[in-house]
Automatic annotation (TrEMBL):
Broad class of the protein's primary localization: cytoplasm
Catalytic residues as annotated in Swiss-Prot or TrEMBL: D109 (proton acceptor)
Named cofactor requirement(s): NH4(+); K(+)
Keyword Cytoplasm: yes
Organism: Bifidobacterium ramosum
Record-linked InterPro entries: ATPase_NBD, Type_III_PanK
Subunit structure: Homodimer.
Pathway: Cofactor biosynthesis; coenzyme A biosynthesis; CoA from (R)-pantothenate: step 1/5
Entry protein name: Type III pantothenate kinase
Entry's family note: Belongs to the type III pantothenate kinase family.
Gene behind the chain: coaX
Length: 256
């Protein structure tokens, strides 16, 4: 079994993959002060919940955008699973070319998402990840990342809204029943949701205008599931896209 680990700014998401199939996923809140023992305990418990033990783990691959977490997390893999994990980054073969000004600056998550989208759905494809940040990456028909943009995620925008105002409450991020809000809470929910939806659609249209060729739009990340049902501009929502990308990267680097 391969354990794929996506270390993001908000959550650490683990995927257990067996024979290329995802057999379990779990989330941990990303905290820099977790010790390797704490991570190891959580991971062995998650394995147990899926009916596995540490002995069932053949290898681990990590995709991280939080460097300060890596030392303790990597140490937990070595101590509890007996595996020194592969880390997505420079020197790791991905099968994807990167033609942006500074290829090394591309986030490991954006790279893994792009690999997952290309190997699963083909290209050209626009990959949209709705995470702590929202990212858009364009992969052409030959498997080359030629452009990408980064903007705020909806939860990040919402936190700024209630964090920088004295009287606005913290609200759940959800699709409102109507834009015709009649109280502060629903006014915030409707404003956040439709502003974000509109910005997403405008961004996708701009990619279409400037690229000048047809492409698929594949979305992933938490809010993608909600937005997918509210716009015709997203073709596929795939919550496991990054795990598919990491599995493909792992296979490419271990093939004999």
């Amino acid at each position: 079994m391969l354990v794929a680990v996506d270390i993001g700014n908000t959550n650490i998401v683990l995927g257990f993959l067996e024979g290329g199939e995802i057999v379990g996923t779990y989330r941990i809140t990303t905290k820099a002060n977790h010790t390797s023992d704490e991570y190891g305990l959580m991971i062995t418990q998650f394995l147990s919940l899926s009916g596995y033990t540490s002995d069932d783990v053949d290898d681990v691959i990590i995709c991280s955008v939080v460097p300060k977490v890596m030392h303790s997390f990597r140490a937990s893999m070595i101590k509890f699973l007996g595996v020194d994990p592969m880390v997505v980054g420079p020197g790791v073969k991905t099968g994807i070319n990167i033609r942006i000004d500074d290829p090394k600056s591309l986030g490991a998550d954006m790279l893994a998402d792009s690999v997952g989208a290309y190997v699963t759905y083909g290209g050209p494809v626009l990959v949209v990840d709705f995470g702590t940040a929202t990212t858009f990456d364009y992969v052409d028909a030959k498997g080359t990342i030629t452009a990408g943009i980064i903007t705020t995620g909806i939860r990040t925008a919402a936190a700024a809204l209630w964090g920088e105002t004295a009287q606005l409450p913290e609200v759940e991020i959800t699709r409102p029943k109507s834009i015709l809000a009649t109280n502060t809470r629903t006014a915030m929910q409707a404003g956040l949701y439709y502003n974000f939806l509109g910005g997403t659609e405008r961004t996708i249209r701009q990619f279409h205008d400037e690229i000048g060729e047809d492409f698929q739009v594949v979305a992933t990340g938490g809010l993608g599931r909600v937005l997918e049902n509210d716009t015709a501009l997203i073709d596929v929502y795939d919550p496991d896209l990054i795990f598919k990308g990491m599995a493909a990267i792992y296979a490419r680097n271990t093939a004999h």
